[in-house]
Amino acid sequence: MADPHGMAPLEPGGLTSADGRPPGQAPARRGPGGKLGLALKLGVFVFLAIVGLMIFPPLMYFAADYVVAAALGSFAAAAVANALVLRIYERGRLAGIGMQWNTASMRNVLAGILGGGGAAALMLGIPILAGAARFTADPEYVPTFGAFIFVTVVLLFGAVGEEMLFRGYAFQILLRELGPFATILPISVLFGLAHSSNLHATPLAIVNTVGWGIILGVAFLRSGDLWFPIGLHFGWNWILPVFGVNLSGHTMKVAGYTMQWELGDIWSGGAYGPEGGFLTTFILFALAAYLWKAPIEGQTPFLARSRRET
Q1: Extents of the domains making up the chain
Q2: Longest distance between any two alpha carbons in the chain, whole Å
Q3: Is this structure's pTM higher than 0.85?
Q4: Distance (Å, whole) CA 152 – CA 49
């Protein structure tokens, strides 16, 4: 069971089978233990992820533009890397990284979408209401329902892929062995640096992305599954193009308008989008408060349990 604040437990219990495993999870095979074993597992995961990122996105460039190929390719690389290491070291399936689907998962992903989307809408809505930004028609783009659905699906796959890469197997075994602080902060820094090659990236954009990584890491700790961070990630990413602003340096046209700012780039984020400005910095504090109040249902994080309990 979750504690009164909703924090997911790090011990057997909750939605698990009689022997402490998630429903359908095969008996755990932990593989080599100790620091050497941990390094081996991390090394194999990182190797598989890098190889996947070298293979899948380029293959998709032939059929899609850069943003679509990157999102779908990252998803494929993350899914394959996680599935293989789970099979090799845990005798498990992809659901073992917190991807199991049940009523709690549905509740958590909806809470995440509400939080992430609500935070983005609040961040962009206040400047509009204050007269610091306005919508301007985009005569070069005619919105269609098909394009709206397509962008939505791409953003969903992108969010799931990034969460599996940065909050999946490697994150969770580090959490199990090293604890929250020694795991969440370093992985969040890597998450931020991974966005440093995006178009128009700035130091503030990277700092904000590191902050987002901390939010998403704590979200996993709170819910015990990947669905809550996936919801937060997707909700935020989806609202930004709907408002007609760039997303992490990329323009994804969904509506027939763009958002024009009367504020300087230090606030609006400039060509990178709002994630490169101080508005995002401030809204991250609101999101941090939301994490502790969100109506989520804590699940047992299978891979994050301490070794002595498995």
Answers
A1: 102-309
A2: 62
A3: yes
A4: 24
